[in-house]
Amino acid sequence: MRMSVVSNALIATLVGFGGSVAIVLAAAQAVGATPDQTSSWVAALCLAMAGTSAVLGWLHKMPIITAWSTPGAALIGATSGIGIEAAVGAFLLAAALIIATGLVKPLGNLIARIPTAIASAMLAGVLLSFVMAVFSHLPQTPALVLPLVVGFFVVRLVSPAGAVLVVLAAGAVLVYALGLNGPVEGPLGLPRFVLITPQFDAATLIGLGVPLYVVTMASQNLPGFAVLKAAGYEPPVRSSLLVTGIASLVTAPLGAHTSNLAAITAAICAGDDTHPDPNKRWPTSLFYGGFYLALAVAGAALVSIMLAMPAAFIATVAGLALIGPLVGALAGAMGEPDKHLPAVVTFAVTASGLSLFGVGAAFWGLLAGLAVCWLEGLRAGRN
Hints:
Blueprint: H1 3-30, H2 35-60, E1 66-68, H3 70-77, H4 84-102, H5 105-112, H6 116-136, H7 142-156, H8 160-177, H9 202-230, H10 237-251, E2 259-261, H11 264-270, H12 283-298, H13 300-307, H14 311-321, H15 323-333, H16 340-352, H17 361-382
């Protein structure tokens, strides 16, 4: 057991929670959730992350990390005129569709046939924007970002695994020393779990439930499987979909939207920085689950505290933590000479941030890379 197994799980937890909890809060406000329902929503998501990650990691002995659907939360936040009860009905439909997908064998075969170079290129395209965000925040808050960047590379000379932890701890101190933290607003007590009676409105089921399923599969689960594949693992597609789908079904009445495989935070836990031996990385799932269990207990208080931290702090910690995975993904993308062109196309489309029909760039990058790979196969066949 290496300390990096624990530290990377901690970083993944904080990056995943802190980087997207504001989107969940916006979604809760969009559907008219009360403060107690919002607290229940976040706490239920944390419990789902804790349980699904621990179960899948233990079951398959892989660093399988789950997350809530960030694009799904953004989709919910963009809706109007939908109440929390009707939204919960849509959440239940999306969960049922994910479970049904887990029972359909062709999807598992599709994932298994994705070339490693294309999977790595898609991951690199996803990670690039996070690493670039570090330097886009540098001109705005140099007193915070520059010391953290310099400190990261200096500490990395001694301890690559400990560098991000130093950045996290030093950054939190620096935020308060510079007075960059905002006021802590909202409840600071334990969360209350609120049972919400769902309403099954046809328009909401079609207009929110189905799109929520689509964006979760295309923008979260497929990239999540690709992360595992890029790290050298064979993704357990069926059980992953069933476990996360069932968790989504159970937590939906508590206000929580969809649970799924993680992509960005999974890259922190699945790479060489966690452990040089791929067979010894899976305990990160257990520690990750434990940290999310603690977040569930802290609940509303942590939501309030995290929202008081500046965006530059979260972006810098996330970006520096993902430099190592980005290097590995780029190396994997260029590892097969005959896949260079489709890998570059995949990387370019994914990094572009293209979004069509509510589906994110990761899916379109994967689709473009597979199309070019197929065309290149036809050309090679003619020759």
